[in-house]
Structures
1.
Amino acid sequence: MKYYGGCDSGSTYTKCVIIDENGKMVSDVTLRSRINAVLSCEDALNQAVEKVPDLHSPQELTYLVGTGYGRNKVPFADENISEISCHAMGVHVADPKVKAIIDIGGQDVKGIAVDTDGTVLNFAMNDKCAAGTGRFFEAMARAFEMELSEFSNLSLQAKNVIPITAQCTVFAESEVISLVGEGKPMDEIAAGIELSVAKRCFVMSKKAGAVDHITLTGGCAKNAGLKAAIEQVLNLKVIDLPIDPQLMGALGAAEFARQKAER
């Protein structure tokens, strides 16, 4: 049996996926990224390989593709491919019916339109500001003195929304801290945060060509409050993927590895 790997070296998390020659996912790992991207990738690859009895080291992979923020740092990679292409291919593998993606990563937001073969039709990216990214949500959770998972569900309880006017992560964090200090309902503040990010996704959804549905990828796709806010603002159904949405970049990279090795 031949095995193919994809390693997504992200700014916040490093993900690795291994698939077999039939395209079946046989191993996956998600680790918090260290300062040294090479060490992060080595950790993820080694842990992923340990889950496959037939493999003993990453060098035994038939083909390995690196992607993500640190894609040039992936050891043993045969080549690297942009995370935009890999997220499109990953979603195509997970659910071929989905043709529009909003990818919310650690430091940027992307809208991606997917063609029938999993390649990219069009995309737009907001990488000028961290507002609305994974790091933004981590900052908001800190302001609430909550775990990120707890914060992600908080807005679902809100009956009203307290708007967040600041467009910058630093200013938004200060605004949130002030509102919390004033004793405003925390669920309503959280609802305002989720709504502000959802509005930022509007242009991305248009660039992705979304008509009636869209899917979310990246770690922020697990944010239930954000999903609900996006459905409200965009008036679109957010499709849940059958595979962890945080793994889409690594899965797409692994599928590219399989395709390229077979040529």
2.
Amino acid sequence: MLVTRDFVTDANENLRSAVGTLADEAQTGQVRQFGPLTAACAGVPAPIFNRVFVFDTPPISKLSAAVAWMAERDVPFWVTVTEPVVEEVTNHRADLDLVTAAEQPGIAMASLDEIPSRDSVAEIAAVTDPDERDAFSTVTASAFEWSLDVVEQVDQAALAADDVRLFLGRVDGHPAASGLLIQSGHVAGVYSVGVVEEFRRRGIGEAMSWEVLRAGREAG
């Protein structure tokens, strides 16, 4: 039997699960439902971790309530909207005191049959203890120019979650790259692949992406 999957829906649901999982585990995090809308707030001053997800045409009263609730958290946040409801939400942008931000592209892979063999200057392994988590946080903060305090809070939440795995890459023992695997159902989401500037342009980011994908495949 031929099974057709909607990879865009899979990717969107994985993103919603990813942010929701981190918000659930974060010390200052909260997740609320407003009808069909999910509002997930990790409570840190970085909008990527605080979002209202709008995947279907929302009742405007629910969208307004979700935005108001998020605004009360007193942290920057995004309203993440997918086609075909972008235009409708945009029409209410002024009423909700929102501004248009950049698009966030994603990539969906239908098959993980062809994962290249490990061949990198970096040694990549899963993070399993607090010391490695500290190195992971330092690398991630440097690679994305995020506040170390914010990253540490999110990484602590990630380690506490069952469906999240952190990966750290080292070059000659020096922490150089980071990557994140977040699973939802049978979908493996790859997030936050970053490389410290001095180690860039050596194929380490690509190797990290494949390593996280390999872990997702091994998890089923």
3.
Amino acid sequence: MKRAKPKSKAGSRSLGLLLDRFERAFDKGARLGFDPVELPRRFSDPADQEVAGLFAAALAYGRADLFKPQLERVLAEMGPSPARFCESFARSPRPSTFAGFRYRFNLPVDLRALAAAAGHLRLAHGALGDRFAALFREASGDAQPLRCALGRFARELRDAPPARALLHERGLRGFAHLLPDPELSGACKRWNLYLRWMVRGPDEVDLGTWKGVPRSALIVPLDTHVARIARYLGLTDRDDMTWRTAEEITANLRLLDPEDPVRFDFALCHLGMSGACPPERDPGRCEACSLRDSCRERWSTSTARASPS
């Protein structure tokens, strides 16, 4: 599969200016209610934000209008401090916790294991962010330090003794779905989404509670909306949902903003989620789009229509 050709300096500058204007003008507040980041943003304590964010990211698969109500109930059961809840739960798990939870591949015991794992890491290291920052520093000599640190972080959560004890009958499959392995080929959208929330900001979307990882190291959380719009904008020619594709899109975004390449993610994702940029070309929406001048889909369709038969 061919790689997207690097843009010329003039092309990168033009797209960078266009994306910068688009991102700054995008009404993020109007879209927060449709995004799982809304839930960890309800907490003021960084400890609670990182734990609520972990649960929100782990469950952010499928449609937001389906997983968010389940997540609301989970967080409500945790009470005012998800961090303290998980620490207490890791010491003394209760078998009836999250009894009403059901969402696609996951059952209550998977959520209990996640609470136990999060509490275990917090008790051992003080904060999830402190542990991830330490793993990131340890991976500094690796060719892919963020991915390496994420792999170790996910493994420590999956292998946490109190979580394993809870899963002795259920097995690890559902729990592993909540905490996918970044060392496999998948794009790990939910992990990269969690890192974006924790590392970027604080701003009107992201929380910025983790200080030990630079924003420049982040990888775009690749979903179908971002992948499609990235192809339209010439940020990639790849059509697979892999870590390699996420890296390529991020590398091209890094040409536009070296210090904060994933700052465009929320706006691009919600451009697709909202239907403003639909999968099938809509001339009215396309002409109203502020990114239309750099959209390859618009120009390729226009050229095809203008060509003689």
